[in-house]
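Supplementary Note 3. Input sequence used for the single-chain structure prediction.
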Amino acid sequence: MADALTISGLDAYYGEVQVLRGFELTLKKGEVLCLLGRNGAGKTTALKSIMGLVSVRAGHIIKDGKDLTKLPAHEVPKTGVAYVPQGRRLFAELTVAENLEIGLMTRGKGDVTRESVLGLFPVLRERLSQRSGTLSGGEQQMLAMARALCIEPDVLLLDEPTEGLMPSMIARIREAVAELRQRGVSTILVEQRVDAVLSLADRVAFIENGQNRETVPVEDVRADPDYVRRYVGVS
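The predicted structure, written as discrete structure tokens, is reproduced below.
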């Protein structure tokens, strides 16, 4: 299977504080790769590094032969990488339709893309004229994902998309990620809920102290609970 994204030797910093140290990661085309690890291990920083949102002082992030570390942050989505940050970051005063329009403008997409995205999240079609700040938490997460998908990404970065959601909404988000995999989208998923990961991921990368300690097929993690105990601290 070909690689959708390759990270090698990455050193990333917040100010003078180094978070990633020689970080390595390979995302294969059409897979869901989950990053697991304790709080502060560097999972979110890895996603922000891909998007150009933190200071990268060494290493490379290669997508389609292009080194994303050489691009300003606003150019990264134009390469087909979409990011749904923790906490959603919607424009609360704007309607659902207006939030989607901002996503569509990034790469000049139009009605066909919008309809495809609304097909994934039908509830948003009923809320197009509603201010996004008045949506439920689950609906806001769907809108954040839908807005990201408006750039028609082939790589999607999701940071704790099920955090704080009801089980029915969690199920819908997971269904959407699985559907995107069927469409050929490659996803890096940061998730604290181990049960959510095991039912969705193809491989799991265990992040510790700013490094990827090992990446294994999800079947190995299911078969050996010691992986999760060692790197996440829960059984």
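The longest helix spans residues 167-182. The CA atoms of residues 41 and 127 lie 37 Å apart.
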